[in-house]
Amino acid sequence: MRTGARIAVLGGGIAGLAAAVRLADRAPAGTSVTVYEQSGALGGKLRTGEVAGSPVEFGAESFLVRDPSGGDSAAVGLARRVGLGDALAHPSTGQAAIAVAGGLRPIPGGTLVGVPGDLDRVATVATPARDRDTDGGRPLLGPDEDVAVGALVRRRFGDQVVDRLVDPMLGGVYAGRADRLSLAATMPALHRAARVEHTLTGAVRAAQAAAAPRTPGAPVFATPAGGMTRLVEAAARASGATVRLGATVREIAPTPTGWRLVVGPTRDPELVEVDAVLLAVPARPAARLLAGVHAGVADRVGALDYASVALVTLALPAPALPALSGFLVPAEAGTLVKASTFFTTKWGHLRRDDGVALVRASVGRYGEEHLLQRPDEELTETVHRELSGLLGARLPAPLAGHVQRWGGALPQYPPGHLDRVAAVRAALRAAHPTLALAGAGYDGVGIPACVRSGETAAEEIIESLGGSGA
Predict the structure, then answer these.
(1) pLDDT value, residue 308
(2) Could you tell me if 274 and 422 lie in one domain?
(3) Rounded distance, CA 18 to CA 33, Å?
(4) For residue 247, how far is the Cα from the chain centroid?
(5) Are 300 and 419 within one domain?
(6) Are residues 352 and 406 in the same domain?
(7) Does residue 126 carry a pLDDT above 70?
(8) Residue 295 to residue 287: CA distance in whole angstroms
(9) Contact (CB, 8 A) for 299 and 289
């Protein structure tokens, strides 16, 4: 690898920071890394705040502990790398519910993101079509076929399983709709099985069996005690990178030896020469930067759509809450609220002696952005009213609250997404091998997926510059 290589990481979210840490670990001594972040803070959608004197997440609250192979997830690996391996907390209450038929019913066990391998187990929530999932003598999907999750499940199990289970569970993660989201991108294990198995129940069981066995009672999720911002800060320190906040990169352009960045205001731009660029920003700003580099790639990247959401946190004095971690709300309920988390019930380390409970609601589904365009006070009142109705009892007036809006926060993956991303990366590697893409827009919305995406992009940059110093 070039001695003294200069690498620019554009975007200070968890993908960009994970990339910077990997560069610190794998690039030769003398490599300089600078992280450019347009906003005034690192972390992207990871942000810990405070409501009524208690820490609370204003973005993602936790991450998966295991990856599909059964090892530590990329997020756990990063936490260990930056010295937080012993600071991870796990939920003290894991049971969640779905709001159906005027009440809260436990989410049935044994499903794969709501898709059942045993139809009897979902009977308390939905009535599946039992006569549709027949063996037609061939795999459910062709070798190169991708479909919307909703289309496949509706065809095999009927509408209620989608509307009451699959759609709200996918909506909780992506704020999207099952009828628009790619099976390959959102449920890769089931997609692989569906190219072999002849029934959907068989594909679910095969996907579950292929997953590494988990020790009974082992935690599924984790969060850093003290908040996600602690992980962000630790990653920034461990990377050793120069961090520039409030630094807008307006243009990137290839040069004979690398790249030129145009940074800062139009009237007084700063020109920065680097050897490689790692783009870890959302798809639309990435497309704007790519427009002058590779128009075809820019068009494909810019076509990715996003959903907007808002997170409304209420501090409630001694409310009567069920012993749940939270609940999901199907779209058929007609509420703005699509999910709720009982923070001080779910996370034992957040419980308070004074009985004050922190309850967070997620509002906004794909295509409903207009419903979020109301004042914070009105949004808070709507959430309080809807939560009271969903819980069947009026909640006490909140002592404090907070509204966090995330515009264009969650990428939507239509069928064929993975093939389009692969084509984009292949085109970039062929034309500009020292430019790499990372982030949720390409590789998944979960924290482990973003960490893995950043680390993979870092490895691509190291390889393009001539190899690793490790």
Answers:
(1) 96
(2) yes
(3) 12
(4) 25
(5) yes
(6) yes
(7) yes
(8) 9
(9) no
Residues in the chain: 470
% helix, strand, coil for the chain, step of 5:
35, 25, 40
Domain range for 349 is: 48-93+305-411
Q: Which of 216, 350, 262, 249 is nearest to 9 (CA)?
A: 249
Average pLDDT estimate for 206-222: 82
Residues 6+ apart with CB under 8 A from 357: 315, 316, 318, 319, 321, 342, 343, 344, 345
pLDDT tens digits for range 327-372: 999 999 999 999 999 999 999 999 999 999 999 999 999 999 999 9
**How many C-beta atoms surround the C-beta of residue 253 within 10 A?**
12
Whole-model pTM over 0.85: yes
Q: Is 80 exceeded by the pLDDT of residue 144?
A: yes
DSSP-derived secondary structure letter, 350: G
CA 271 to chain centre: 33
Question: In terms of domains, do 297 and 430 share one?
Answer: yes
The reply to whether 109 and 204 lie within a common domain is: yes
Provide φ and ψ at 240, rounded to 5°: 65, 10
252: enclosing H helix or E strand: strand 249-254
Q: For residue 133, give the CATH number of its domain.
A: 1.10.3110.10
Percent of the chain with pLDDT over 90: 91
Distances (CA, A) of 157 to 131, 170, 183, 332, 361: 8, 17, 16, 18, 29
The residue written with tokens 């049971």 in the block is 95
Q: Say how far apart CA 390 and CA 129 lie, in whole Å.
A: 27
Sheet strand arrangement including 276-279: 242-245, 32-37, 6-10, 276-279, 435-437
Q: Are 379 and 363 in contact (CB under 8 A)?
A: yes
| Alpha-carbon gap, residue 174 to 55, rounded angstroms | 24
Give the residue from 47, 80, 74, 50 showing the smallest Cα distance to 233. 47
